[in-house]
Amino acid sequence: MKLKSRLIHSYMLVALLASATGVVSYFYLLQVKINTQALFNIELVDIENIHSIRFLLQKAKSNIREAQVQRNRDNLQAEKYAIGEVRYALSQLHFVHQAWLQNVKQGMIEGGVTDEEMSTKLATLVQLGEPIWQFINNSFSLLSLLESADPYQMDAVQEFNGVYAGWLEQSKTLQQLLDTKKGIAEQKVNASLDNFYSSLDKAQGIYLGVLCSFLVVSLAVAYFVTRSITYPLSRVSKYAEKLANSDFGRGPNFSSEDEFSRLGHTLELLADEVKQQKSLMVTEIEQRKISEADVRHLCEFNQTLLNSVADGIFGIGPDGYVRFINPSAQLLLEDKSNQLLGNPYNEHLSFIDMDGHASHLKANSLIDDVLYNKSISSKRSIAKLDTLSGRVIYVEYQATALQQDNHSAGVVVVLRDYSLKFDYEQELRLTAQVFDTLSEAIIVTDSKNRCIKVNPAFTIITGFTEGDVILQEPNFIFTDHHTHLFYKTLWHNLYAEGEWQGEIWSKRENGEMFPAWVKISVIKHNAAITHHVITFFDISEQKEAQKQVKFLSMRDLLTGIPNRSLFQSRLKNRILSAEKSQQHVALIVLDLNNFKEINNQYGLVAGDSLLKDIAAALGQVLSPQDTLARLGGDEFALVVPNIDQMNALEDKVAQILDVFKQRLTWAEEAVNLSASLGIAVYPRDGDSLESLNSAAHFALQQAKMLGEPVSYFHQDMNLAIEHKKQLTKALNLAVAQNQLKLFYQAKVLPSTGSIVGFEALIRWQHEELGFISPAEFIPLAEETGLIEPLGEWIILEAARQVGEWVKLGHTELKVAVNLSSKQFISARLAQVIAESIENSGIKPSNLELEITESMLMENVESAIQVMEQFSRQGISISLDDFGTGYSSLSYLKRFPIHTLKIDRSFVAQLSSDNDDAKIVATIITMAHTLGLEVVAEGVETKEQMRFLQGHQCDQLQGYYFSRPVSALEATELLNRNFLALI
Prior knowledge:
By secondary structure, the protein is an alpha+beta fold. It has 5 domains: about 1-215, Up-down Bundle (A middle domain of Talin 1); about 310-425, 2-Layer Sandwich (Beta-Lactamase), CATH 3.30.450.20; about 440-545, PAS domain (Beta-Lactamase, 2-Layer Sandwich); about 555-715, Alpha-Beta Plaits (2-Layer Sandwich); about 730-975, TIM Barrel. The protein has 29 helices and 27 strands. The strands form 5 sheets. Strands 19, 20, 21, 22, 23, 24, 25, 26 and 27 form a 9-stranded mixed beta sheet that branches. It is flat, with a radius of gyration of 53 Å.
């Protein structure tokens, strides 16, 4: 206890001295910090408020100048805004000065400043308030003069300029006062910092003195501890070290009565006891050596016996660790590096039993039962086992308990490889299961072709049981339906090639005949035929389905009338017949007008119902020789043979048109439908199927273009057809040889005149045909399928060009590309856009896709999904020609678009048509309400530009700024500005 009390007293003395030093130092530094911070904050308030007043002065000056400039420009709205900013700055100037006085007063009270210093400080700030108030009053007077003066009267301008000059001088004087005040405040801040650092130096000197005193006391305490504790402890430690080295001699003289002396006496008693025990251990060790030699000889004998056994054997101790393993077990378990010996067997081996009930238990359950004394021995079982190399094998094994002195000494496991036998059994089971579960009928016959086995499917298909056909020839398969020559050829090919398959008419148990697909194979042993295997299945349904498919392949699934394939076949036959009999054949191509609007208004179900009604009604006006077909969508065709007089053809046309004069209804609502007809006559208008079909479709296009119900093909149309052929050939060549070029028309901001983007426009200048309008060759490209490769080239080229502009520093520039309807629904569109972005190194936001309302309305839901995909990637989507299509707000709010483009037809009449002006203004307001940007195209005059600018149209595009130009000219435009045109 004396040792403990000495240590406690020493530690308490050191701790008290350290605590006193820290507390005194902390409170002294805290007081210095508080006094300095209070004075420092007062000066910082001065500097902050001086900055605020200078900012408000500068804001008032700059906005008065801005108001004067806008007044000279007659921009009353901008002038009013600038004057409002001046008034706001002047009012804030007053509030900042008042808050300054309050903050300084509060800070000086908290900092403990004397009343005299506070009065001096506040008097200085109050004096500064007088020039501030004078500046505010003069500023309001200047504003009043500015609002009342006429900028076009010289006297008023001179008067304002005079007052304005005096006002500027006053603001400079006030600015100088503020700069002087700021300099004084900064000097006081620096003085406060110097005072703080001086106080800190004093505190540091005091702290170092106390710290030295603390070190002296600590050294005295350390000496006391060493003298009283360390030296006696060292004597005891040396004596313990001698005992550890088996030196049991007497220890040092422990004469005192402290804790260390008592510990030394105890060690001496312990040394005597250890000396006696050492002599007993020597005798025991000699006896144990003799016993171990006997045990070693016995173990060597047992190990030799285990190593010679062919079965695998390993032993498990009571703790679950593998104690021994023979070479056969190591070879079977593929234990090449002795991973099992000395390790828990459960970590490496997993015996999963295969004998039914044991498979529901955990792995190694039978071995564990013996190991934990639940049974003396397990039954011989089959188990799946993963070897140490990962290979799966099947083993037959048994576990037996080991007993020693009536106690469990572990388990011996004997196992042998069962994999080959198990695989053979599994193969037999699988073969039997496949045989029984196959849906094909199977018959196995012997060498004399007598049935010896059938599967259940045989009974299901034929109705015969196994007892009905056993040891019988399969005559129910080989019926008399086929000739003797057929069967002779069958058996000849079977024995020559080893198998035969084909279609045979077979017979069921009830006598019903059915077609079967039969396969026969022979099984040989030592070149002699031992068995035949006959498999077959009923193909009645397949043959019926083939008939149905053949019928449906020639019919339109919706209306039941002939489809395009059957129509062309019949038209070809009619032409061949007419050629022989020298008669005429009329081809009428019929297309429904505005049928897409019907689908959009009433739905696709209504549209399909109306198509069936129309097909049925047209069928009523046909003669038995006529053929009506649906070519696709809302297009029908009618072949009328034996037309020798035009009156008969005109009567047939009148009957067709009368069909559309009848009242068509859907859901008890009248539906108005009309049709356009194109008519061509063989051989006058075409002497082949292709030429006649082309003539009829060209006549249909003429009818639609002229708005007439019927158009007959005439010879003058051949010129148009030839031109179309020539243009098609030239377009194919132009696309293949990259003869088309992209031009770019600028999009301009109406506020600054800067270019924010371009629209990429395709142009074609042919060497012989001259300039060909996109309105002529784009529809031709869509018709011939060239629109997809052409559209892909446009996207790739536009992306490449904008990539060049981005490298020049125009990183936010955006290029818009127009998409066709076929291109929009193409599965390759997303891939092409991704490739264009990756190859050009641009951001998705540099690319914009322009689509039309009519493209979206063909399949609204699908269109929304496509647009959402591009929108998530950061690609902008613009709705082109807005106002000329459906313009449905219910759809517009669902489309994930970013921009609306007002069609040029509205912009062209802005100055002369008040209705168009109202429409444009409404579109802009509506788009902004929906969070969309607006682009007006076709801007050609300053009046149009002014109107759109006044209604906050976001971007302008048109000849007023720039025609479509080449990429080189567009690059030059980027370095210019259209501010002069604004």
